[in-house]
């Protein structure tokens, strides 16, 4: 098991203590390699009245995936920060009829360098992430979000 993966599993356990909602979402262990993060969830606890994935659950998992990516990245940089989502845009593309996952990747190095530069000079920074909710290979929802980090 990689150091990144172990860190992600420990992070998920910590997170479950911080945000009780996620203990009810049927989350599996995260997959994290230092550049990308995948959070998977079972359909059953996230189903709506139509038998498909509840839009609020999809939005929650996508938002959480981006938030966790920024938090894990900052921890890798030795930073202790509060991270919040500033704004997001969601696009629901198709119904989710089975277990699903949220996937995000860190942006290009130039954007990360700008983010860290703002953290160094102002004690805060903003990072834009794209997150996909997928069922199998099909993209069911996208989130484009701006996350803000503030040094504690």
From TrEMBL:
Q: Which UniProt keywords apply?
A: Membrane, Transmembrane, Transmembrane helix
SUPFAM superfamilies named in the record: Thioesterase/thiol ester dehydrase-isomerase
Sorted alphabetically, which InterPro entries does this protein's record hold?
HotDog_dom_sf, YiiD_C
Q: Where is the Thioesterase putative domain?
A: 10-150
Q: Mind telling me which residue stretches traverse the membrane in this protein? A: 54-74
Q: What is this protein called?
A: Thioesterase domain-containing protein, putative
The lineage is: Bacteria, Pseudomonadati, Pseudomonadota, Gammaproteobacteria, Oceanospirillales
């Amino acid at each position: 098991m990689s150091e990144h993966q172990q860190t992600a599993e420990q992070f998920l356990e910590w997170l479950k203590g911080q945000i009780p909602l996620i203990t009810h979402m049927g989350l599996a262990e995260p997959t994290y390699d230092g550049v990308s993060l995948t959070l998977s969830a079972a359909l059953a606890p996230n189903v709506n009245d139509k038998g498909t994935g509840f839009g609020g659950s999809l939005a929650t998992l996508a938002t959480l995936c981006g938030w966790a990516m920024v938090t894990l990245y900052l921890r890798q940089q030795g930073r202790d920060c509060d991270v919040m989502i500033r704004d997001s845009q969601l696009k629901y593309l198709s119904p989710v009829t089975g277990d699903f996952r949220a996937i995000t990747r860190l942006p290009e190095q130039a954007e990360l360098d700008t983010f860290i530069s703002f953290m160094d000079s102002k004690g805060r920074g903003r990072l834009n992430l794209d997150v996909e909710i997928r069922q199998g290979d099909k993209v069911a929802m996208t989130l484009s979000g701006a996350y803000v980090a503030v040094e504690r």
